[in-house]
Amino acid sequence: MSNTNEPTIMANDTTWQPISVDVLREKYAKGKEKELDGPEMVAAIRARVAKGLAQQEQTPAQHEEEFLRALNAGFIPGGRINSAAGTDIKNVTLINCFVQPVGDSVSEMVDGKVGIYTALQQAAETMRRGGGVGYNFSHIRPKGAKVKGTASSASGPVSYMHVFDQSCSTVESAGARRGAQMGVLNMEHPDILDFIEAKQESGRLNNFNISVGVSDAFMQALENRVPFELVHKAEPSEEIQEAGAYQREDGLWVYRTVDPRELWDTIMRNTYNAAEPGVLFLDRINQENNLHYCETIEATNPCGEIPCADFSCCCLGSINLCAYVTESLTKNAQFNFDAFASTVATGIRMLDNVLDVSAWPLPEQQQEAQNKRRIGLGYTGLGDTLIMLGLRYDSQEGRDFAAEITRWMRDAAYKASIELAKEKGPFLKFKAEQYLESGMASRLPESIRDKIREHGIRNSHLLSIAPTGTISLAFADNASNGVEPAFSWFYTRKKREADGSHSEYKVEDHAYRVYREQGGDVDNLPEAFRSALEISANDHMLMQAAVQPYICAAISKTVNVPADYAFQQFQDLYVDAWKAGLKGITTYRPNDIIGSVLSVESTQASVPQDLDQSTPDRKLHLTDTPEVALASLRWPKRPETPMGNPGVTYMINSPKHGFALFVGHVANGTNQPFEIWVNGQEQPRGLAALAKNISMDMRAYDREWLKIKLDSLSKTAGTPFELAMPPKGEMTSVPGNVAAMARLVRFRCDELGLFDGKTDKTPLVDALFSRKEPKSGTEGTLSWTVDINNPNTGDDFAMFVKELVMPDGTHRPYSVWLSGTYPRDFDGLTKSLSLDMRVIDTAWIAKKLRSLKDLVEPQGDFFAKVPGSDKQAIQPSTVAYIARLLIHRYTMLGLLDEEGYPLKAMGYMMSDESAQAQNKGNIVTLAGKACPECGNAAVIRRDGCDFCTACGHIGACG
């Protein structure tokens, strides 16, 4: 990679997107800055911030120039710094968030923790000045504990959280920015169940994010299946003691003992259903903590990227990684590590100065900052940077490179803080040997550790990756947010103007915009363009795990999962995160309380089935489903070929039929077969429908799926005969017409090189909830059965549909077969449809059935009952009636409407048009909370921030 030291300069970019100018003007520009155009406005803001932060230096002019270079090269201080630094605003803090103590007393200090109502007053003052607040409420005695002096029982921490919630609402209504809050309760607290269910009702604790503080002891109890004690130092009431509570040798009272699996299941189910509580691995946080010797961390700020001790703050800034990519989106693309490291060093100095420039809501916060000088430098644009370098976010190569960037940032930051310590002195609480014993500091290169011993270090903590929604929009050309991949490539922003009218403009992702302006084909984006919607939940988690070892604070990352994401996989994701060394994990899943959002991928899992014998209606039960990414399944339309397209024709002569098979392909860099046809007056009935089905498979971007289909069909029984196989016409025994067609199509695919050495992803195969047809035990299983009689063709048979119960309780067909008098070649169609049924997104089988429900067969129409009605109507053909009956069954199960469209989109499958729209950035409107900008119920959680999928409004983070 590049080794030049000259940073990339970005300030003079004259093609600012309207969204960037709007956000700059609305959130960051002050006074006359608002009157400038985009480039001049950002230049003025940067000049103001550089000058404001340089005033703490002994040579302000020299450092002002240095700071401005860093800002132009991609350093973006936190939003409040950009907004207020260098202005005459004196009473508003430059710090976004704080953590503050809450003790076990109404008004007195206990064990160094201020009383509840003192904490409430301190929080109100902090939020009035613009800061968010995190708290751990575990010190408050449990519900039912004795309250000495009043002969009463405690009401518990959750009751007091409602008081804090109402106070936050009052501060907000007074005109301040949204007062974000984080509430934490430790797993061992006796009121943990009340806490985790506190937000299950819509409207409760709206001003809180909540997280459970999980200890290693609990996770080990969970793994080892041993009982777990819920404890507190406060003595329980006589009633609770009579029920079995007792005092341990360490003085703590055991209120009750629980099965950790049941407690974990309860937490996970509540998180699954309402996106909260989040999970903080507090022991891991404290083991890693550089200040483990003088503080205990119990909570984080509202977004979760800064675990802090009492009265600590998050002083944040991010570096736009995209600014350091040279020759982007070409084979010569490189990352300028040296220029990046230079900006990191200056960014550390600037954030350190913020601690001295900022106004502080409370003197305790100011003293804590002086004692420890905690800052949090991070980056934004990681997803876009990987794209510009040609690396997939969900690949090992992408994770390795992200880790390398983060390692460079870590080393440059610690070196810079050591140099600051030489010049200005280390933080007051610094003790070299204890500091170097922390999990984080122990991994530093020995050369850096030696310098810390010799010179000290200016800042106790240096690195954090925060959500960067608005600053990325304003200062980084809408580069992907923080550590996240891009959410979409392009969308339409609808903005309400001052006069009540609305305007619209396009918002492009930075990497997409660069690619488009370089002349790239936006309808066929390179493989590296992987959006958040196309990446599996596990791969999201693995990226966080790859980066975390180099970050001394934490990472704000949201793993979005689909509504039907299997609960077992959901639980496992949290356990895997603990095993991977993460400090916490946040997931977001659609639900009735918070609204629907995005979906995320999964991996194909083994699918154990159990036969439910508890009721007469015996059904196979799936205990697991595959993990499939939102938008991972593509459904391209048939390509337009106005000049025609090449193809080959094979003649098939079976004992009763002679017909032609045509296989067409398009040449676009590679030869891609895209459809097959059968023709001839004697063609077997059912093969035209099967050809349509396979043609759709050919266009599905999954070679392995097509191979499985063809291999399965090549064994379909019928009337055996000898087939003249190409290329030499050798006579080969085949079991029937379907098998002959499948083998010829497979031959042509092989001839075109379709399967040669290809290692593509297999989204359809991965989306099968069962690759092979599930089998029942000896007790059998019931199926849905319907009789079909077409007197015009002599068809008289029964259709059987096997069904199973999915983990979410819904019933799903997984196999269809026929018995009676019918053309044996129908078996090929039912075999193909059975495999289609096992794709987890019902939109797949729905599309297949819609393509067949109006299929006409010459002289094959007949009069039959309309599915779901007492009326009769002419049916176009037997195959069409089979398709209509299957659609009706899916309708009976609540999966499709009578026209064959999904009643509830799962989000895995995209049509060619919608895939193209996503490539161009258009976002499908998703259900969520009400948007303050456009009023639509479409606000979801995206990359740690509120985002409206209807109008593009960016709301609060945290």
Automatic annotation (TrEMBL):
Catalyses which reaction(s): a 2'-deoxyribonucleoside 5'-diphosphate + [thioredoxin]-disulfide + H2O = a ribonucleoside 5'-diphosphate + [thioredoxin]-dithiol
InterPro entries from the UniProt entry: RdRp_reductase_class-2, RNR_lg_C, RNR_NrdJ/NrdZ
Name of a matching Pfam family: Ribonuc_red_lgC
Listed CDD domains: RNR_II_dimer
Top-rank EC class of the record's enzyme: oxidoreductase
Molecular function as annotated in GO: ribonucleoside-diphosphate reductase activity, thioredoxin disulfide as acceptor
Domain Ribonucleotide reductase large subunit C-terminal: 96-588
Coiled-coil spans in chain: none
Domain of life (superkingdom): Bacteria
Enzyme Commission (EC) number: 1.17.4.1
Keywords from the named record: Cobalamin, Cobalt, Disulfide bond, DNA synthesis, Nucleotide-binding, Oxidoreductase
Cofactors that this protein relies on: adenosylcob(III)alamin
Role summary: Catalyzes the reduction of ribonucleotides to deoxyribonucleotides. May function to provide a pool of deoxyribonucleotide precursors for DNA repair during oxygen limitation and/or for immediate growth after restoration of oxygen.
Family: Belongs to the ribonucleoside diphosphate reductase class-2 family.
Annotated protein name in UniProt: Vitamin B12-dependent ribonucleotide reductase
